[in-house]
């Protein structure tokens, strides 16, 4: 049992991961108040790098107005490079590949951290309240601003390279800006950035092209570019699997380093709009057909469930909450989702992160149990 999770995986660019477990990107709410990397974050990621093949950081915003969480990492300025260098070093010292997630929160950005509260998106379509962001109506981006965002992803990629990261992950999921453009509900534009599926895909593809161009200039073929995806949206006119299929094909055509599906339950989730009970991971594994590595996150909270996901067609399993509570998945201690404030030091969990997940747990966002 649990043999497959410990197998090595060679990516398409010949980078070797020592096992199939990836630390899923999950915000820490623990950057310094100036959005630089904190010592607590360095210790947190470093401790969890010791039992996984790859670590993906929580989201970092590539523009000042793209911040999606309190005390989130910034990557929009060179002043962030020294802290990012420490973070990459801690992850790599633990033996894992270090991936920096790049994001713009779009209509889910936090106005209290943005100059004049100027929240932007593909279109001025009202965004619903979430546990992380308020209900708000963003301003639609102008053409020159769209190009600036694309360039910002490239500039942040360069900073990741300078800081020593092994790659970046483009956050195209969770209703943030890239998904705002892809969504037929949230993208009501009538120019080249909206309307047809081709036009709605244009922004995502431009971001991928910009990051790949940056890597070609400043790194080599060993630098990884991954892409995180939400497959469908709940709105009646929202993102559908047929849209996502085309996105996946185009990403594969661009030889993306890996595809990362964000799910609630990786083993059981299936299309919510079609009479089709085939789990997403099995359906997409057939579509991808081993052309690029496929990864998914979602309730993979035991080694047995991780193995089951790998046997269902995934190449990698992304693990979030389980690693928060269990820095070493292969220790002799049983895997648990229980957190105690008395154990924060021993598991290298920042107090600000503990407080945030405890509060959000009351809203059903997380599955942790708390003993005090």
From TrEMBL:
One of its GO terms (molecular function) is oxidoreductase activity. PANTHER family: BINDING OXIDOREDUCTASE, PUTATIVE (AFU_ORTHOLOGUE AFUA_2G08260)-RELATED. The lineage of its organism: Bacteria, Bacillati, Bacillota, Bacilli, Lactobacillales. It comes from Paucilactobacillus wasatchensis. Pfam families: Oxidored_FMN (PF00724). Keywords: Flavoprotein, Oxidoreductase. Gene3D superfamilies: Aldolase class I. This is Putative oxidoreductase. Residues 12-330 form the NADH:flavin oxidoreductase/NADH oxidase N-terminal domain. It comes from the Bacteria. CDD domains: OYE_like_4_FMN (cd04735). Coiled coil: none annotated. The keyword Oxidoreductase applies.
């Amino acid at each position: 049992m649990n043999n497959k999770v410990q197998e090595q995986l060679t990516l398409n660019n010949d980078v070797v991961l020592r096992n199939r477990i990836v630390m899923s990107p999950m915000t820490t709410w623990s950057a310094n108040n100036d959005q630089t990397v904190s010592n607590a974050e360095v210790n947190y990621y470093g401790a969890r790098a010791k039992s996984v093949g790859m670590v993906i950081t929580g989201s970092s915003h590539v523009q000042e107005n793209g911040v999606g969480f309190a005390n989130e990492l910034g990557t929009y300025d060179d002043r962030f490079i020294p802290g990012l260098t420490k973070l990459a070093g801690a992850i790599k010292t633990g033996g894992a590949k270090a991936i920096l997630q790049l994001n713009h929160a779009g209509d889910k950005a936090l106005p209290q951290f943005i100059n004049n509260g100027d929240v932007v998106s593909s279109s001025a379509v009202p965004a619903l309240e979430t546990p992380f962001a308020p209900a708000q109506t963003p301003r639609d981006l102008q053409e020159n601003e769209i190009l600036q965002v694309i360039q910002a992803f490239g500039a942040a990629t360069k900073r990741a390279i300078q800081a020593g990261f092994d790659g970046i992950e483009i956050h195209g999921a969770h209703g943030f800006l890239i998904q705002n453009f892809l969504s037929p509900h949230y993208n009501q534009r009538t120019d080249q950035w909206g309307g047809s599926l081709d036009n709605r895909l244009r922004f995502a593809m431009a971001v991928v092209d910009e990051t790949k161009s940056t890597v070609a200039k400043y790194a080599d073929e060993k630098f990884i570019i991954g892409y995180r995806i939400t497959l469908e949206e709940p709105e009646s006119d929202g993102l559908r699997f047929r849209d996502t299929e085309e996105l996946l094909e185009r990403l594969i055509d661009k030889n993306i380093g890996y595809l990362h599906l964000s799910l609630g339950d990786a083993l059981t989730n299936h299309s919510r709009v079609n009479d089709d009970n085939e789990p997403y991971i099995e359906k997409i594994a057939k579509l991808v057909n081993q052309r690029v590595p496929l990864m998914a996150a979602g309730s993979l909270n035991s080694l047995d469930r991780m193995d089951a996901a790998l046997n269902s067609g995934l190449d990698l399993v992304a693990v979030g909450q389980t690693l928060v509570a269990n820095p070493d998945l292969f220790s002799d201690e049983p895997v648990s989702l229980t957190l105690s404030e008395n154990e924060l030091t021993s598991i290298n969990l920042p107090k600000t992160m503990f407080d945030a997940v405890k509060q959000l747990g009351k809203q059903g966002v997380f599955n942790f149990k708390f003993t005090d």
